[in-house]
Amino acid sequence: MKREVGDMHANPRAPDLSVSSCLVVDDDTFDRHMIRRCVGRDRPGLRVHECATLAEARSFLDSDHADLILLDNRMPDGLGADFARELRDDRRLNDAVICVVTGGDPRDLGEDVTALSKDRLSTRQLWDMVGTSLEERRILKSSGQPQILADFGDGADDRLAPGLSRMLRTLRMARARLARRDPQLAMEELEKLEEMMLALVDVVEGARQP
């Protein structure tokens, strides 16, 4: 496995104090230890737990909590990407950062899954991802979506909430692309956002017709 050891020492981002525990889920002992060292470098207070299967991870999370969850994708009892989606729907983990660390191309897992390349994993890259995810979450929480829905009156939740959620996800993806210095893909995400906003305008104007 190709590892860029130099990257693992390169000016890691200052730790976010809201992340005090990490769960590493990988069936490969070497990879678990590598990820553990990467995430824990210069963070002696970070509690790191390890699980070798998704079943073990489920059992752990039933009785404990992790602020950061790092998953291998190809596990003996399922796919880490599917498990990440499952965990994202768990209200107990609303504040957790969930990321798949894959040996393949992270883009193959879908835009709805936060993913990093295992072969190119570095301490700085990992904590930059954590910081970006937490910042995006703060933006989403303060986005004013409830007020937008309230402005459209009763029943707007059912009509507009799915579209607004998609727009927020698309905006988040564009921000992530820019953070990864990929302006072309960021522009594509912003163009999609523009189309969705125009579609939302059409929906609202149609609802106002007598």
TrEMBL record:
InterPro entries hit by this protein: Bact_response_regulator (IPR050595), CheY-like_superfamily (IPR011006), Sig_transdc_resp-reg_receiver (IPR001789)
PROSITE patterns tied to this protein: RESPONSE_REGULATORY
Xref: SUPFAM superfamilies: CheY-like
GO annotation (BP), single: phosphorelay signal transduction system
Coiled coil feature spans: none
GO molecular-function terms, A-Z: DNA binding
Domain Response regulatory intervals: 21-133
UniProt keyword Chloroplast, yes or no: no
Pfam families membership: Response_reg
Keywords: DNA-binding, Phosphoprotein
Residues modified to 4-aspartylphosphate: D72
Protein name: DNA-binding transcriptional activator KdpE
